[in-house]
Design goal:
CATH class of the largest domain: Mainly Alpha
CATH superfamily of the largest domain: MetI-like
Number of strands: 4
Low-confidence stretches: 335-342
CATH topology of the largest domain: MetI-like fold
CATH architecture of the largest domain: Orthogonal Bundle
Mean pLDDT: 82
Radius of gyration: 26 Å
Helix content: over 70%
Largest sheet: 2 strands, antiparallel
Strand content: under 5%
Length: about 350
Amino acid sequence: MSVRDLKGKRGWLAFAGCFAWFAFTLFPLYWVAITSFKTPPDVVGGPTYLPFIDFQPSLNAWRDLFSGVRGEFYSNFWSSAIVAVSSAVFATLLGTMAAYALVRFPFRVRLVSGLVFFAVAMGGFLLGRDVLDFPPATASIIAFCVALALSVLVNRFNLPGKVMNNDDIVFWFVSQRLFPPIVVAFALFLLYSEMGKMGLKMTDTYGGLTLAYIAFSLPIVVWLMRDFIAALPLEVEEAALVDNVPQWRIFFGIVLPMARPGLIATFVITLAFTWNEFLFALFLTNSEWQTLPVLIAGQNSQRGDEWWAISAAALVAIIPMIVIAGLLGRLMRSGLLSGAVK
């Protein structure tokens, strides 16, 4: 066998392997799509694969979904879209600012100041709640503000103990995702409930859910954007500083345009997290700002899970993310190519 024949055979084997993997990953989407067009007897009567051959397609699941029989679909869809997009935008912007600061400026945080913050915050909360009879939300807010001010003040003194640098701060950001989500969601629910007793409603509101999603997304944004910003050339910013360009103009006018591919990639990842998030929406919303994942999870009845309805709702939730990823993916690739040419 010649070298050319051997290379051709290897190419066909590689193509066959890629095609098999493509079919394997695409099959779940195909199964969800055809299930949404099945009737209940077609679903429970055994597996069927080909429309018009194995079963007769039906639009009943789609009619029920759009007519409101299966819940407030339009309201849930727009709630998901508004909350996911806005929280992804704000989280990407704030996280990029934090990542830029952690790359360009040295930070020194003393461990003693962290211990002071924890002790004052916890002790102040218990003092305000149990001794001064403050409401829990009021006690926690006052204790947090006092603890933050004291920890910043203590950090200015040259006290003994470990001094954490930028890498330690980044690790602290990432470590926030190590907590079980149920713990964070339950704590937020209790906090929002106490704030509601003070007259500031946070549960089942746009602001409450958006703030939760921003806090949930910030660690991953800081982690991703830190590497993107570290790869940017520092000489351009130094030249702007020589020309007395303000720091905020350097960030918005120079850093962000150069980091556009990273911003788009991070935004898409953050949007995927917030669009598909279920636990926070389940705990923090009731009806007005309920999102699509909660609606999809509720597509059942006394007979059990109704997969034809679940498939229709899931397909509607999948399609927007595919479209957005395709559109922004083209912008990201064009940004990478233009950066390579420059």
